[in-house]
Amino acid sequence: MSKHNLENITRDEYPYLNLGLEGIVAFSTTKSFIDGQKGELVYSGYTIDTLAEYATFEEVCFLLWNDRLPSKKELDELNSLLVHERKLPKPVLDYICTTEKHAEPMAVLRSSVSMLADFTDPSLDDTGNAIVMTAKIPTIIAAFARARQGLDVVSPLDEGSTAYNFLYMLNGVRPGAEAEKTMDLCLILHAEHGMNASTFTCRAIASTESDIFSAVTGAVGSLKGPLHGGANTAVMNMLLALESDLKTADPVAFTKEKLEKREKIMGFGHRVYKTFDPRARLLRTMSKSLSEETGHEILYEWSEAILKTMKEEKNIDPNVDFFSATVYYSLGIQPDLYTAIFAMSRISGWTAHYLEQMSNNRLVRPRALYVGDKPKEWTEISDRS
Hints:
385 residues, mainly alpha, Citrate Synthase, domain 1, CATH 1.10.230.10, 2 domains, three-stranded antiparallel beta sheet, 56% helix, globular
């Protein structure tokens, strides 16, 4: 059947077909709740606004893994374990430092996470392995970011938060309190978000009773796709393209022209949210203050102009990717690293879903609608055109 015919398949003809699994409920979970009409996001009972104001990323990790906040003793123990596990096995670090410098960061991350399975203490349970990956993924990203520039890899600190240590390893200098706070908030906002493509991938792999490293490696591969994790990179590249010609740059005209050509404006719209993404609301405030602090005001002003135009022309609100782009850029992070940093945060949600799946597992086995011809007559090879 031709692609055209496949596109014409409708629910009227096949009422049990749900392209993209839209509206299908495949799992129950305690990890997060999204109200797309109200623009509400909840992690294990706590609103994202509450966690953004009061929590650290490490507390959010514990919350997602255990469905409750940690005591001070439990948080201290988790922080200690995360610090202890930051260093990479030598073969993994050697791979990062010797692979092609033009390699795609998410491809390097995917391979490195897979390699970690070979160097992990076999006595660790799944929660222990979740801690290992949460601790080591920031080191992987920072090490590759420096190695590809010909810079010395910075060893992780034996102190400080995940956010603080990552910025230190990435830039080679200790970050200030405001930079650490901003990075920590970004990690919290990206930690978990319902049954998205990468989380579904993770749980589907878990359902076969495969190991947690395989499940996370698959999730990284899913997040790598531009329709999932790569949108904020596309947003930043769009803004940088405007910045390349400051004299004639007109974000309003640019947006309208894209819409007239029916081209997608990355960072807008969401499969679930029908209003302002609550994470985007928080990032919007951060983007404004950071751009003013770092001299990137024009990027924030253009973002606001594009946002206003999209609302007026299409009544579409931004998602988390739109303002996270300028936030990361103001922190000095290269655009092609954005998706990898997304993974650095989402590892907490992926592993939480893995643990949940394994606690009450059922093999994921959906059906597919066959739309090809049948039965076909066999033709000898000599008679085939």
